[in-house]
């Protein structure tokens, strides 16, 4: 990868907060995003749990009469950062909205050795 391509990659990672970036750097290490294989059942289950934790942080059930329900993970990247940081894009729905409206969310979750921390959760902004 050329220096120009590397600079463009890092610009996109910063601009998009790690979401919607197609990993194009070969290698593995701190600061390098890698795609998550969603076909791996163990990893897919972990991302489902992380997405549900993010929804609980975004919309705590005890504060609202309705809450959002996880539907499915759309895509995810990860990087090594004292454990793993996952950038997850997923669908969620509001069961009280009778129209079956599904929204897209993004969550950044740090899976450290001794703890799991939802660092960011938000509806996906469309450009």
Give the tally of structural domains.
Answer: 1
Mean pLDDT: 83
End-to-end Cα distance: 28 Å
How do the helices and strands follow one another from N- to C-terminus? HEHEEEE
Give the secondary structure arrangement, pairings included.
Blueprint: H1 3-15, E1 34-35, H2 41-58, E2 69-80, E3 84-93, E4 102-111, E5 116-123
Antiparallel strand pairs: 1-2, 2-3, 3-4, 4-5
Question: Please, could you describe this protein's structure?
Answer:
With 127 residues, the chain is α+β, with helices and mostly antiparallel strands. Helix content is 24%, strand content 33%. It has one domain (3-123): Nuclear Transport Factor 2, Chain: A (Roll), CATH 3.10.450. The protein contains 2 helices and 5 strands. The chain has a 5-stranded antiparallel sheet, covered by helices on one side. The chain starts with a helix and ends with a strand.
């Amino acid at each position: 990868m050329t220096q120009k391509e590397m600079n463009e990659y890092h610009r996109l990672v910063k601009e998009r907060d790690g979401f919607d970036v197609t990993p194009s750097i070969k290698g593995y290490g701190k600061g390098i995003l890698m795609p998550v294989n969603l076909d791996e059942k163990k990893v897919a289950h972990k991302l489902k749990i992380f997405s549900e934790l993010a929804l609980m942080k975004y919309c705590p059930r005890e504060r609202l009469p309705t809450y959002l329900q996880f539907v499915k993970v759309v895509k995810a990247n990860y990087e090594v950062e004292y454990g793993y940081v996952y950038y997850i894009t997923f669908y969620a729905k509001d069961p009280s909205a009778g129209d079956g409206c599904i929204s897209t969310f993004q969550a950044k979750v740090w899976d450290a050795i001794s703890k799991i921390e939802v660092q960011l959760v938000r509806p996906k902004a469309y450009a």
